[in-house]
Amino acid sequence: MSIIDCASSGGTEAAKADREMSHRDLRIGDLVFIRVNARPFLEVARATCSWTNHVGIVVGVGENDSLIAESTFPLSRVTTMSRFLARSSGGFAIARLKQPLDRAQQRSLISAATRRSGVFYDTGFNIESQRQFCSRFVREVIFEATGVSIGEVETFETLLRRNPRHPLGFWRCWYLGWIPWQRRTVTPASLLASPHVRVFWDNHCNDIEGARPSIARKSHDDGDDVALRMSIGAKWLEWLVGPLANKNVIRRMITRNAGLPWRADNSRSRNELGIRYRPLAESMNDFFQQLVETGQLRR
Prior knowledge:
There is one protein chain. The chain is α+β, with helices and mostly antiparallel strands. It is 35% helix and 14% strand. The protein is built from twelve helices and ten strands. Strand 9 (218-219) and strand 10 form a beta hairpin. Helix 4 runs antiparallel to helix 5 (134-146).
């Protein structure tokens, strides 16, 4: 049975993808990213400008189904791949560590995930809590087994203010009127953007509202990094100053094009033509790295 068969048995949009992926393609330690519809997780996705808001890790591979360890409400657990994917409302993506896991590391990873099973879910998303949440769970399991640290630990202040357009009303209600700005956390989006992993399967829906292509930092074997950031300026300022700075920029064009959410759907080309696309972040990073290496762009 293919992974898409497992997903389609749950009636999710993952069934729209081509059917070449099977459980034999999985490895212990693979990261599986999905999108769930619970309101707090949708807000996490919107705050991080990402389509994904939940992640699990493969701890067993079989012919007809595989096993996923995850931190979910109310307790962390091991579930089947089919049940895990059936909860997704926006497809899924699978990433793998660039550093292959040997057998000893695979056994250590399974042991680390097993020890963390049955732990209550941390609805406060505090990385220093004695409870767990999905991205912290996966990050700690990977680190304990391999010594590789994936994802970016950051404060709520850094996370929420990176996207100034994201309304904070929900989070003020969630934290009973006071957002713990200095609390540290880690998100599924940062795990997906980690330079230590590569995405080898991605069929998530590209027309999800609030998601946008993210350009992450790419790490290279020589230790040099090129940091790329993508931000959107204040639309009202562009509308006011743009025509004064460049006569070819008209206010109607700014009104109709600037600051709008990215919405696209390439499912038809993937499903009918079998085309597979590289992640935009990977393509953009490689492009800019080429500019650096050829001397056309300074670090």
